[in-house]
Amino acid sequence: MSTTPGRRLATAVALAASAALLLAGCAGGAGASQGGGDGDDRIQVSFMQPPKAALNPFSDDAFKLSRWSTAETLVRLTPDLEIEPLLATEYEQVDDLTWVFTLREGVTFHDGTPFDAAAVQNTLDQATSYSPPPRALNGVALTTEATGDMEITVTTDVPDPLLPNRLASPQLSILSAAAYQDGGVISPIGTGTGPFELVDVNGSTTATLDRYDDYWGEPAAAAGIDASFVPDGTARAASLRSGEADAAETIPVSQISLLDPEQVFEVQQSRSTYLALNSESGPFADPAVRAAARAAIDPSTIVDTIYEGHADPSVGLIPPAIPWAEDLRGDVASATDPAAEGVAITLATYTDRAELPEIAVQLEQQLEAAGFDVTQDVREYVNMEAEMLDGGFDAVIMSRNVLLDTGDPLSYLAQDFTCDGGYNIAQLCDPGVDEIVAAGLQLPVGPERQQATMDAEAAILQLDAVVPLVHDRVAQGEAGTWTNIERDPFERRLITELTAPAE
To answer: What is the domain extent for residue 363?
Structure first.
Protein backbone atom coordinates (compact mmCIF):
# COMPACT_ATOMS: atom_id res chain seq x y z
CA MET A 1 0.00 0.00 0.00
CA SER A 2 1.54 3.31 -1.05
CA THR A 3 2.07 6.10 1.42
CA THR A 4 1.02 8.75 -1.06
CA PRO A 5 -2.00 10.87 -0.01
CA GLY A 6 -4.04 9.75 -3.01
CA ARG A 7 -3.51 6.07 -2.28
CA ARG A 8 -4.22 6.62 1.42
CA LEU A 9 -7.50 8.29 0.57
CA ALA A 10 -8.40 5.50 -1.85
CA THR A 11 -7.73 2.92 0.83
CA ALA A 12 -9.92 4.73 3.35
CA VAL A 13 -12.74 5.16 0.86
CA ALA A 14 -12.55 1.54 -0.30
CA LEU A 15 -12.61 0.22 3.22
CA ALA A 16 -15.50 2.47 4.17
CA ALA A 17 -17.41 1.17 1.17
CA SER A 18 -16.55 -2.39 2.12
CA ALA A 19 -17.78 -1.70 5.63
CA ALA A 20 -21.11 -0.51 4.25
CA LEU A 21 -21.40 -3.62 2.12
CA LEU A 22 -20.49 -5.81 5.06
CA LEU A 23 -23.19 -4.26 7.21
CA ALA A 24 -25.68 -4.43 4.37
CA GLY A 25 -24.88 -8.13 4.00
CA CYS A 26 -25.44 -8.63 7.71
CA ALA A 27 -28.77 -6.82 7.51
CA GLY A 28 -30.12 -8.64 4.48
CA GLY A 29 -27.95 -11.71 3.89
CA ALA A 30 -28.58 -15.41 4.25
CA GLY A 31 -28.69 -15.25 8.04
CA ALA A 32 -31.53 -12.75 7.95
CA SER A 33 -33.47 -14.76 5.40
CA GLN A 34 -33.22 -17.75 7.72
CA GLY A 35 -34.56 -15.74 10.65
CA GLY A 36 -31.15 -14.81 12.07
CA GLY A 37 -31.18 -14.40 15.82
CA ASP A 38 -34.63 -15.99 16.34
CA GLY A 39 -33.89 -19.72 16.26
CA ASP A 40 -33.39 -22.08 19.16
CA ASP A 41 -31.39 -24.70 17.22
CA ARG A 42 -27.76 -25.37 18.11
CA ILE A 43 -25.23 -26.70 15.63
CA GLN A 44 -23.15 -29.74 16.60
CA VAL A 45 -19.62 -29.78 15.16
CA SER A 46 -16.81 -32.36 15.40
CA PHE A 47 -13.38 -30.71 15.34
CA MET A 48 -10.13 -32.45 14.49
CA GLN A 49 -7.78 -31.26 17.22
CA PRO A 50 -8.38 -30.26 20.84
CA PRO A 51 -6.87 -27.01 22.09
CA LYS A 52 -3.11 -27.28 22.56
CA ALA A 53 -2.63 -24.13 24.64
CA ALA A 54 -5.88 -23.77 26.64
CA LEU A 55 -7.27 -21.56 23.82
CA ASN A 56 -4.57 -18.94 24.35
CA PRO A 57 -5.22 -16.55 21.43
CA PHE A 58 -1.48 -15.93 20.96
CA SER A 59 -1.11 -19.60 19.95
CA ASP A 60 -2.51 -21.59 17.03
CA ASP A 61 -5.62 -22.15 19.16
CA ALA A 62 -6.64 -18.69 17.93
CA PHE A 63 -7.82 -20.32 14.72
CA LYS A 64 -10.45 -22.24 16.70
CA LEU A 65 -11.71 -18.95 18.14
CA SER A 66 -11.91 -17.60 14.60
CA ARG A 67 -13.67 -20.70 13.21
CA TRP A 68 -16.19 -20.41 16.05
CA SER A 69 -16.77 -16.69 15.32
CA THR A 70 -16.22 -15.78 18.95
CA ALA A 71 -13.13 -13.58 18.61
CA GLU A 72 -12.65 -10.88 15.95
CA THR A 73 -9.78 -8.87 14.55
CA LEU A 74 -9.55 -5.25 13.40
CA VAL A 75 -9.57 -6.36 9.76
CA ARG A 76 -9.82 -9.72 8.04
CA LEU A 77 -8.61 -11.59 4.98
CA THR A 78 -10.93 -12.08 2.00
CA PRO A 79 -10.89 -15.12 -0.34
CA ASP A 80 -8.92 -12.96 -2.79
CA LEU A 81 -6.23 -12.31 -0.13
CA GLU A 82 -7.33 -8.72 0.27
CA ILE A 83 -8.14 -6.92 3.52
CA GLU A 84 -11.67 -5.93 4.53
CA PRO A 85 -12.94 -4.13 7.66
CA LEU A 86 -14.18 -5.89 10.75
CA LEU A 87 -13.68 -4.15 14.11
CA ALA A 88 -11.98 -1.30 12.27
CA THR A 89 -14.02 0.46 9.59
CA GLU A 90 -11.04 2.02 7.80
CA TYR A 91 -7.31 2.60 8.06
CA GLU A 92 -4.61 4.69 6.44
CA GLN A 93 -0.84 4.64 6.37
CA VAL A 94 0.29 8.17 7.19
CA ASP A 95 4.04 7.61 6.78
CA ASP A 96 6.49 4.74 6.38
CA LEU A 97 6.06 3.61 9.98
CA THR A 98 2.66 4.88 11.11
CA TRP A 99 -0.85 3.52 10.56
CA VAL A 100 -4.13 4.92 11.90
CA PHE A 101 -7.20 2.71 12.38
CA THR A 102 -10.72 4.06 12.86
CA LEU A 103 -12.72 1.72 15.09
CA ARG A 104 -16.29 0.53 14.75
CA GLU A 105 -18.85 2.23 17.00
CA GLY A 106 -21.43 0.31 18.99
CA VAL A 107 -19.40 -2.84 19.68
CA THR A 108 -19.35 -4.48 23.11
CA PHE A 109 -17.36 -7.38 24.45
CA HIS A 110 -19.20 -10.44 25.67
CA ASP A 111 -18.62 -9.34 29.28
CA GLY A 112 -20.52 -6.12 28.55
CA THR A 113 -17.55 -3.76 28.53
CA PRO A 114 -17.24 -1.37 25.59
CA PHE A 115 -14.94 -1.91 22.64
CA ASP A 116 -12.72 1.15 22.19
CA ALA A 117 -9.19 2.28 21.45
CA ALA A 118 -8.01 1.51 24.98
CA ALA A 119 -9.11 -2.12 24.59
CA VAL A 120 -7.34 -2.43 21.23
CA GLN A 121 -4.19 -0.88 22.65
CA ASN A 122 -4.27 -3.30 25.58
CA THR A 123 -4.55 -6.37 23.34
CA LEU A 124 -1.78 -5.26 20.99
CA ASP A 125 0.49 -4.29 23.87
CA GLN A 126 -0.18 -7.65 25.52
CA ALA A 127 0.73 -9.38 22.25
CA THR A 128 4.00 -7.52 21.75
CA SER A 129 5.16 -8.15 25.32
CA TYR A 130 4.11 -11.81 25.38
CA SER A 131 6.85 -14.46 25.29
CA PRO A 132 6.97 -15.79 22.71
CA PRO A 133 4.94 -13.18 20.81
CA PRO A 134 2.34 -14.34 18.28
CA ARG A 135 3.95 -15.53 15.04
CA ALA A 136 1.97 -12.89 13.15
CA LEU A 137 4.35 -10.33 14.67
CA ASN A 138 7.54 -12.06 13.55
CA GLY A 139 10.00 -9.55 12.11
CA VAL A 140 8.35 -6.37 13.41
CA ALA A 141 7.95 -4.51 16.70
CA LEU A 142 4.83 -2.42 17.36
CA THR A 143 4.05 0.53 19.57
CA THR A 144 0.48 1.73 20.00
CA GLU A 145 -1.31 4.91 21.03
CA ALA A 146 -5.00 5.57 21.55
CA THR A 147 -5.25 8.81 19.59
CA GLY A 148 -9.00 9.08 20.18
CA ASP A 149 -11.73 7.10 21.87
CA MET A 150 -12.27 5.20 18.63
CA GLU A 151 -8.89 5.65 16.93
CA ILE A 152 -5.73 3.65 17.42
CA THR A 153 -2.34 4.60 15.97
CA VAL A 154 0.14 1.78 15.39
CA THR A 155 3.81 2.48 14.73
CA THR A 156 6.27 -0.13 13.49
CA ASP A 157 10.02 -0.14 14.10
CA VAL A 158 10.71 -0.73 10.39
CA PRO A 159 8.61 -0.06 7.28
CA ASP A 160 6.10 -2.89 7.13
CA PRO A 161 3.65 -3.06 4.22
CA LEU A 162 2.12 -6.18 5.80
CA LEU A 163 0.82 -4.57 8.98
CA PRO A 164 -2.89 -4.89 7.99
CA ASN A 165 -2.29 -8.56 7.12
CA ARG A 166 -0.71 -9.11 10.52
CA LEU A 167 -3.65 -7.49 12.26
CA ALA A 168 -5.99 -9.80 10.32
CA SER A 169 -4.41 -12.85 11.97
CA PRO A 170 -6.72 -14.58 14.47
CA GLN A 171 -3.74 -14.47 16.85
CA LEU A 172 -4.36 -10.73 17.16
CA SER A 173 -8.07 -10.96 17.96
CA ILE A 174 -9.19 -8.15 20.25
CA LEU A 175 -10.34 -9.34 23.69
CA SER A 176 -11.59 -7.39 26.69
CA ALA A 177 -9.25 -6.43 29.51
CA ALA A 178 -10.67 -9.27 31.65
CA ALA A 179 -9.10 -11.83 29.30
CA TYR A 180 -5.57 -11.01 30.39
CA GLN A 181 -4.94 -12.55 33.78
CA ASP A 182 -1.99 -12.96 36.13
CA GLY A 183 0.82 -15.31 35.18
CA GLY A 184 0.36 -14.89 31.45
CA VAL A 185 -3.00 -16.67 31.44
CA ILE A 186 -5.34 -15.42 28.70
CA SER A 187 -8.96 -16.54 28.67
CA PRO A 188 -11.27 -16.02 25.67
CA ILE A 189 -14.26 -17.23 27.73
CA GLY A 190 -16.74 -14.36 27.70
CA THR A 191 -14.21 -11.82 26.43
CA GLY A 192 -14.62 -11.73 22.62
CA THR A 193 -16.78 -9.57 20.34
CA GLY A 194 -18.12 -12.12 17.82
CA PRO A 195 -21.66 -13.36 17.17
CA PHE A 196 -21.01 -16.35 19.46
CA GLU A 197 -19.87 -16.13 23.09
CA LEU A 198 -17.57 -18.84 24.40
CA VAL A 199 -19.18 -19.87 27.70
CA ASP A 200 -17.47 -23.15 28.63
CA VAL A 201 -14.49 -25.34 27.73
CA ASN A 202 -14.23 -28.88 29.02
CA GLY A 203 -10.51 -29.53 28.65
CA SER A 204 -9.73 -31.44 25.48
CA THR A 205 -13.27 -32.78 25.08
CA THR A 206 -15.87 -30.08 24.34
CA ALA A 207 -16.52 -26.35 24.09
CA THR A 208 -19.83 -24.53 24.31
CA LEU A 209 -20.76 -21.25 22.65
CA ASP A 210 -24.02 -19.33 22.87
CA ARG A 211 -25.42 -16.71 20.52
CA TYR A 212 -24.45 -13.20 21.65
CA ASP A 213 -27.63 -11.18 21.22
CA ASP A 214 -25.87 -7.81 21.48
CA TYR A 215 -23.56 -8.53 18.56
CA TRP A 216 -22.81 -5.40 16.51
CA GLY A 217 -23.95 -7.08 13.29
CA GLU A 218 -26.84 -9.38 12.55
CA PRO A 219 -27.32 -11.79 15.50
CA ALA A 220 -26.39 -15.37 14.74
CA ALA A 221 -29.05 -17.62 13.22
CA ALA A 222 -27.89 -20.49 15.45
CA ALA A 223 -28.64 -20.41 19.17
CA GLY A 224 -25.16 -21.76 19.77
CA ILE A 225 -22.33 -24.10 18.85
CA ASP A 226 -21.63 -27.38 20.61
CA ALA A 227 -18.05 -28.27 19.69
CA SER A 228 -16.59 -31.73 20.27
CA PHE A 229 -12.89 -32.47 19.84
CA VAL A 230 -12.55 -35.78 17.99
CA PRO A 231 -8.93 -36.44 16.96
CA ASP A 232 -9.77 -39.82 15.42
CA GLY A 233 -10.85 -39.27 11.82
CA THR A 234 -12.93 -42.43 11.66
CA ALA A 235 -14.86 -41.28 14.72
CA ARG A 236 -15.42 -37.83 13.16
CA ALA A 237 -16.90 -39.41 10.06
CA ALA A 238 -19.01 -41.73 12.20
CA SER A 239 -20.40 -38.77 14.13
CA LEU A 240 -21.67 -37.37 10.83
CA ARG A 241 -23.16 -40.68 9.67
CA SER A 242 -24.94 -41.23 12.99
CA GLY A 243 -26.45 -37.76 13.08
CA GLU A 244 -24.49 -36.78 16.20
CA ALA A 245 -22.75 -34.00 14.25
CA ASP A 246 -24.08 -31.47 11.76
CA ALA A 247 -20.55 -30.78 10.49
CA ALA A 248 -17.15 -32.40 10.85
CA GLU A 249 -13.68 -31.09 10.09
CA THR A 250 -11.24 -32.97 7.86
CA ILE A 251 -12.78 -36.28 6.89
CA PRO A 252 -9.96 -38.80 6.18
CA VAL A 253 -9.68 -40.09 2.63
CA SER A 254 -10.44 -43.61 3.85
CA GLN A 255 -13.83 -42.44 5.14
CA ILE A 256 -14.99 -40.34 2.18
CA SER A 257 -16.51 -43.25 0.26
CA LEU A 258 -18.50 -44.28 3.36
CA LEU A 259 -20.39 -41.00 3.44
CA ASP A 260 -23.20 -39.79 1.22
CA PRO A 261 -21.48 -37.85 -1.60
CA GLU A 262 -23.78 -34.92 -0.85
CA GLN A 263 -22.25 -34.72 2.64
CA VAL A 264 -18.64 -34.28 1.49
CA PHE A 265 -17.26 -30.99 0.22
CA GLU A 266 -13.66 -30.86 -0.98
CA VAL A 267 -11.97 -27.51 -0.51
CA GLN A 268 -8.59 -26.64 -1.98
CA GLN A 269 -6.37 -25.58 0.88
CA SER A 270 -3.66 -22.98 1.30
CA ARG A 271 -1.65 -25.98 2.51
CA SER A 272 1.15 -27.83 0.77
CA THR A 273 2.89 -31.07 1.63
CA TYR A 274 6.53 -31.33 0.64
CA LEU A 275 9.81 -33.07 1.39
CA ALA A 276 12.38 -30.76 2.98
CA LEU A 277 15.98 -31.84 2.36
CA ASN A 278 18.71 -30.83 4.81
CA SER A 279 20.86 -28.71 2.50
CA GLU A 280 23.36 -27.76 5.23
CA SER A 281 24.72 -31.09 6.47
CA GLY A 282 24.60 -34.79 5.69
CA PRO A 283 24.18 -36.32 2.23
CA PHE A 284 21.79 -33.65 0.96
CA ALA A 285 24.39 -30.93 1.41
CA ASP A 286 25.47 -32.16 -2.04
CA PRO A 287 23.24 -30.50 -4.70
CA ALA A 288 23.56 -33.53 -6.98
CA VAL A 289 22.21 -35.84 -4.27
CA ARG A 290 19.28 -33.48 -3.66
CA ALA A 291 18.58 -33.44 -7.39
CA ALA A 292 18.64 -37.26 -7.43
CA ALA A 293 16.08 -37.43 -4.64
CA ARG A 294 13.81 -35.01 -6.43
CA ALA A 295 14.13 -36.92 -9.70
CA ALA A 296 13.20 -40.16 -7.91
CA ILE A 297 9.91 -38.89 -6.51
CA ASP A 298 6.61 -39.13 -8.38
CA PRO A 299 3.92 -37.02 -6.61
CA SER A 300 1.13 -38.34 -8.83
CA THR A 301 1.61 -41.84 -7.42
CA ILE A 302 1.19 -40.44 -3.90
CA VAL A 303 -2.01 -38.67 -4.91
CA ASP A 304 -3.43 -41.78 -6.59
CA THR A 305 -2.55 -44.31 -3.89
CA ILE A 306 -2.68 -42.44 -0.59
CA TYR A 307 -5.17 -39.68 -1.32
CA GLU A 308 -7.21 -41.79 -3.77
CA GLY A 309 -7.33 -38.76 -6.06
CA HIS A 310 -8.55 -36.37 -3.33
CA ALA A 311 -5.54 -34.04 -3.68
CA ASP A 312 -3.48 -32.45 -6.44
CA PRO A 313 0.12 -33.33 -7.39
CA SER A 314 2.16 -30.24 -6.72
CA VAL A 315 4.61 -28.56 -9.02
CA GLY A 316 5.44 -25.75 -6.62
CA LEU A 317 5.22 -24.61 -3.03
CA ILE A 318 2.39 -22.11 -3.46
CA PRO A 319 -0.91 -24.01 -3.80
CA PRO A 320 -3.74 -23.35 -6.27
CA ALA A 321 -5.90 -21.93 -3.47
CA ILE A 322 -3.76 -18.81 -3.92
CA PRO A 323 -5.69 -17.29 -6.84
CA TRP A 324 -2.75 -15.75 -8.70
CA ALA A 325 -0.05 -18.40 -8.15
CA GLU A 326 -0.37 -20.57 -11.22
CA ASP A 327 -0.40 -17.71 -13.72
CA LEU A 328 2.82 -16.26 -12.27
CA ARG A 329 4.75 -19.49 -11.69
CA GLY A 330 8.19 -19.49 -13.29
CA ASP A 331 10.76 -22.20 -14.08
CA VAL A 332 10.84 -24.47 -11.01
CA ALA A 333 12.92 -27.26 -12.57
CA SER A 334 16.10 -28.47 -10.93
CA ALA A 335 19.25 -26.59 -11.92
CA THR A 336 21.55 -29.54 -11.11
CA ASP A 337 22.20 -32.92 -12.73
CA PRO A 338 21.25 -35.76 -10.37
CA ALA A 339 23.89 -38.16 -9.05
CA ALA A 340 23.52 -40.56 -6.12
CA GLU A 341 24.12 -44.25 -5.46
CA GLY A 342 23.87 -46.19 -2.21
CA VAL A 343 23.34 -43.04 -0.12
CA ALA A 344 21.99 -43.71 3.39
CA ILE A 345 19.42 -41.18 4.61
CA THR A 346 16.99 -40.70 7.51
CA LEU A 347 13.44 -39.85 6.43
CA ALA A 348 11.33 -38.28 9.19
CA THR A 349 7.74 -37.24 9.57
CA TYR A 350 5.04 -36.95 12.24
CA THR A 351 1.85 -38.80 13.06
CA ASP A 352 -0.36 -35.77 13.73
CA ARG A 353 -1.53 -35.85 10.11
CA ALA A 354 -2.58 -39.38 9.26
CA GLU A 355 -1.46 -39.23 5.62
CA LEU A 356 2.16 -38.26 6.36
CA PRO A 357 3.35 -41.68 7.66
CA GLU A 358 1.71 -43.26 4.60
CA ILE A 359 3.58 -40.82 2.36
CA ALA A 360 6.80 -41.83 4.15
CA VAL A 361 6.23 -45.47 3.14
CA GLN A 362 5.63 -44.45 -0.47
CA LEU A 363 8.70 -42.17 -0.56
CA GLU A 364 10.89 -44.86 0.96
CA GLN A 365 9.95 -47.17 -1.91
CA GLN A 366 10.57 -44.52 -4.56
CA LEU A 367 13.89 -43.40 -3.09
CA GLU A 368 15.17 -46.94 -2.58
CA ALA A 369 14.29 -47.72 -6.18
CA ALA A 370 16.66 -44.87 -7.10
CA GLY A 371 19.51 -46.26 -4.98
CA PHE A 372 18.98 -44.58 -1.60
CA ASP A 373 19.12 -46.54 1.66
CA VAL A 374 16.23 -45.15 3.73
CA THR A 375 15.61 -45.33 7.48
CA GLN A 376 12.32 -43.89 8.72
CA ASP A 377 11.76 -41.94 11.95
CA VAL A 378 8.05 -41.31 12.61
CA ARG A 379 6.80 -39.75 15.86
CA GLU A 380 4.35 -37.24 17.25
CA TYR A 381 5.21 -33.72 16.11
CA VAL A 382 5.80 -32.40 19.62
CA ASN A 383 8.54 -35.00 20.14
CA MET A 384 10.52 -34.10 17.05
CA GLU A 385 10.11 -30.37 16.36
CA ALA A 386 13.36 -29.37 18.08
CA GLU A 387 15.34 -31.95 16.10
CA MET A 388 13.77 -30.84 12.84
CA LEU A 389 14.66 -27.20 13.51
CA ASP A 390 18.22 -28.18 14.44
CA GLY A 391 18.76 -30.17 11.24
CA GLY A 392 18.64 -33.53 12.99
CA PHE A 393 17.21 -35.38 9.97
CA ASP A 394 18.28 -35.69 6.37
CA ALA A 395 14.75 -35.32 5.02
CA VAL A 396 11.42 -34.36 6.60
CA ILE A 397 7.92 -34.70 5.14
CA MET A 398 6.11 -31.49 6.06
CA SER A 399 2.59 -30.11 5.78
CA ARG A 400 2.38 -26.31 5.88
CA ASN A 401 -0.40 -23.77 5.59
CA VAL A 402 1.35 -21.06 3.57
CA LEU A 403 -1.04 -18.34 4.81
CA LEU A 404 -1.23 -19.32 8.47
CA ASP A 405 0.31 -16.25 10.06
CA THR A 406 -0.06 -13.20 7.84
CA GLY A 407 -2.03 -14.33 4.82
CA ASP A 408 1.08 -13.59 2.77
CA PRO A 409 2.84 -16.46 0.95
CA LEU A 410 6.10 -14.53 0.68
CA SER A 411 6.31 -14.32 4.47
CA TYR A 412 5.98 -18.11 4.58
CA LEU A 413 8.89 -18.48 2.14
CA ALA A 414 10.95 -16.07 4.27
CA GLN A 415 10.18 -18.06 7.39
CA ASP A 416 10.93 -21.49 5.91
CA PHE A 417 13.68 -20.99 3.33
CA THR A 418 15.95 -18.05 4.21
CA CYS A 419 19.10 -17.83 6.30
CA ASP A 420 17.30 -16.10 9.18
CA GLY A 421 14.03 -18.01 8.80
CA GLY A 422 12.64 -19.24 12.08
CA TYR A 423 11.16 -22.45 10.65
CA ASN A 424 13.85 -23.47 8.18
CA ILE A 425 13.59 -27.29 8.27
CA ALA A 426 15.53 -27.45 4.99
CA GLN A 427 18.39 -25.49 6.59
CA LEU A 428 18.57 -23.49 3.35
CA CYS A 429 20.83 -20.44 3.32
CA ASP A 430 21.33 -19.10 -0.18
CA PRO A 431 22.27 -15.45 -0.91
CA GLY A 432 20.25 -15.40 -4.13
CA VAL A 433 17.08 -16.59 -2.43
CA ASP A 434 17.59 -14.17 0.45
CA GLU A 435 18.04 -11.26 -1.94
CA ILE A 436 14.80 -11.99 -3.82
CA VAL A 437 12.83 -12.47 -0.60
CA ALA A 438 14.27 -9.39 1.11
CA ALA A 439 13.42 -7.17 -1.85
CA GLY A 440 9.93 -8.60 -2.10
CA LEU A 441 9.19 -8.07 1.58
CA GLN A 442 9.54 -4.32 1.08
CA LEU A 443 6.83 -4.23 -1.57
CA PRO A 444 3.20 -3.40 -0.79
CA VAL A 445 0.58 -6.10 -1.17
CA GLY A 446 -0.27 -6.29 -4.86
CA PRO A 447 1.01 -7.53 -8.24
CA GLU A 448 4.71 -6.75 -7.67
CA ARG A 449 4.77 -8.61 -4.37
CA GLN A 450 2.94 -11.52 -5.98
CA GLN A 451 5.58 -11.74 -8.70
CA ALA A 452 8.37 -11.56 -6.12
CA THR A 453 6.73 -14.45 -4.28
CA MET A 454 6.76 -16.65 -7.35
CA ASP A 455 10.32 -15.60 -8.26
CA ALA A 456 11.40 -16.69 -4.77
CA GLU A 457 9.55 -19.99 -5.14
CA ALA A 458 11.39 -20.68 -8.42
CA ALA A 459 14.78 -19.85 -6.89
CA ILE A 460 14.16 -22.19 -3.95
CA LEU A 461 12.97 -25.09 -6.06
CA GLN A 462 15.83 -24.80 -8.54
CA LEU A 463 18.16 -25.56 -5.60
CA ASP A 464 16.26 -28.79 -4.78
CA ALA A 465 16.18 -27.99 -1.07
CA VAL A 466 12.55 -29.01 -1.11
CA VAL A 467 10.57 -31.46 -3.22
CA PRO A 468 6.90 -30.49 -3.75
CA LEU A 469 4.54 -33.42 -3.19
CA VAL A 470 0.87 -32.60 -2.76
CA HIS A 471 -1.45 -29.61 -2.70
CA ASP A 472 -3.99 -30.59 -0.11
CA ARG A 473 -7.72 -30.57 -0.36
CA VAL A 474 -9.70 -30.93 2.83
CA ALA A 475 -12.86 -33.00 2.85
CA GLN A 476 -15.33 -31.14 5.04
CA GLY A 477 -18.31 -33.12 6.21
CA GLU A 478 -21.77 -31.53 6.33
CA ALA A 479 -24.90 -33.50 7.18
CA GLY A 480 -27.16 -31.17 5.18
CA THR A 481 -28.99 -30.07 8.31
CA TRP A 482 -27.46 -26.56 8.22
CA THR A 483 -26.69 -24.04 5.48
CA ASN A 484 -23.99 -21.39 5.05
CA ILE A 485 -21.25 -23.38 6.74
CA GLU A 486 -18.05 -21.75 5.47
CA ARG A 487 -15.73 -23.79 3.24
CA ASP A 488 -12.64 -21.72 3.82
CA PRO A 489 -9.38 -22.61 2.04
CA PHE A 490 -7.50 -20.49 4.57
CA GLU A 491 -8.80 -22.39 7.62
CA ARG A 492 -9.99 -19.25 9.40
CA ARG A 493 -13.79 -19.48 9.23
CA LEU A 494 -16.35 -22.25 9.63
CA ILE A 495 -19.47 -21.34 11.68
CA THR A 496 -20.61 -17.74 11.28
CA GLU A 497 -23.62 -15.60 12.06
CA LEU A 498 -25.07 -16.68 8.69
CA THR A 499 -24.91 -20.41 9.46
CA ALA A 500 -28.58 -21.42 9.73
CA PRO A 501 -30.78 -24.51 9.97
CA ALA A 502 -31.75 -25.96 6.62
CA GLU A 503 -35.41 -25.44 5.71
So the answer is: 268-474
